[in-house]
């Protein structure tokens, strides 16, 4: 190895800039951490074929409709129902395995599927697994939940369940005093996250910012 190549490798290793690709991640992966945003799934039995987006349902189901998220063995992350006609089911992506499997379909999410998918894509583009390592799935969950909470908070037509989910996710800080009469509580904002702007607005954002500060600490060298 030449002196230049060795020096270049050493600089890359010390640059504190992470490179790499992320493993597959879809809305169903997010729902495994925060199921309240997508609601309880309905289970259906389907038969898949490798490389084909066409599947067969074991029985007709009138609740199924295009654009619903479907997840299960042999179904790529982020897959949705493309069409359904009786027991004929088509997916938005071809199956990666063959067989009869039990799949989950999310029928009534609190947030539109298009919005969930958009924030999943944003998180995938912003968070590199090579930097977060084992924390990557958790960081993805915090990132997406933060933005979905803000989305629900800004939606004037949100259902009572959606409004409740948004309220639960808003940052309250640390309780520093409370009184019994009329039940009043005073909160102090979490310190140490100055400069993280909107991340301070939700409990998910605060958790993400706390870990991101630790993982991203240190100088960077950009060539």
SSE ordering: HHEEEEEEHHHHEEH
User: Roughly what fraction of the amino acids lie in strands?
Assistant: 15-25%
User: Rg from C-alpha positions?
Assistant: 22 Å
State mean pLDDT (0 to 100 scale).
83
> Could you give the distance between the termini?
20 Å
The count of DSSP E runs of length 2 or more, i.e. the number of strands, is: 8
Contiguous low-pLDDT stretches (5 residues minimum) are: 218-222
Number of domains: 2
Shape: flat
Secondary structural class: alpha+beta
Number of helices: 7
Q: What is the helix content?
A: 25-40%
Main pleated-sheet profile: 6 strands, antiparallel
Strand order of the largest sheet: 3-6-1-2-5-4
Structural account:
With 223 residues, this protein is an alpha+beta fold. The chain has two domains: 40-106; 113-215, no CATH class. The chain contains seven helices and eight strands; from the N terminus they run ααββββββααααββα. The protein has helices at 3-14, 27-33, 113-126, 129-132, 136-154, 160-169, 203-215; strands at residues 42-48, 54-57, 69-71, 81-85, 88-91, 99-106, 174-179, 184-188. Strands 3-6-1-2-5-4 form a six-stranded antiparallel β-sheet, with no helix packed on it. Strand 4 (81-85) and strand 5 form a beta hairpin. Helix 3 (113-126) crosses helix 5, helix 5 (136-154) packs across helix 6 and helix 5 (136-154) runs antiparallel to helix 7 (203-215). It is flat and about 55 Å long.
């Amino acid at each position: 190895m030449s002196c230049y190549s060795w020096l270049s490798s050493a600089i890359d290793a010390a640059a504190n800039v992470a490179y790499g690709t992320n493993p597959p991640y879809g809305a169903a992966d997010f729902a495994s951490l925060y199921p309240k945003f997508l609601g309880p799934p309905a289970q259906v039995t389907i038969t898949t074929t490798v490389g084909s987006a066409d599947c067969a349902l074991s029985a007709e189901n009138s609740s199924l409709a295009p654009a619903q998220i479907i997840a299960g063995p042999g179904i790529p992350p982020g897959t949705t129902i493309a069409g359904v006609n009786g027991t004929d089911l088509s997916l938005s992506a071809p199956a990666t395995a063959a067989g009869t499997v039990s799949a989950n379909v999310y029928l009534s999410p609190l947030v539109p599927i298009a919005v969930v998918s958009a924030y999943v894509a944003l998180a995938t583009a912003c968070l590199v697994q090579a930097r977060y390592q084992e924390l990557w799935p958790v960081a993805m969950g915090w990132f997406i939940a933060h933005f979905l909470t803000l989305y629900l908070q800004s939606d004037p037509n949100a259902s009572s369940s959606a409004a409740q989910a948004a309220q639960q996710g808003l940052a309250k800080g640390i309780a520093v005093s409370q009184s019994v009469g009329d039940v009043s509580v005073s909160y102090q904002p979490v310190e140490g996250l100055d400069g993280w702007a909107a991340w301070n607005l939700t409990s998910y954002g605060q958790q993400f910012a706390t870990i991101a500060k630790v993982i991203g600490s240190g100088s960077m060298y950009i060539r």
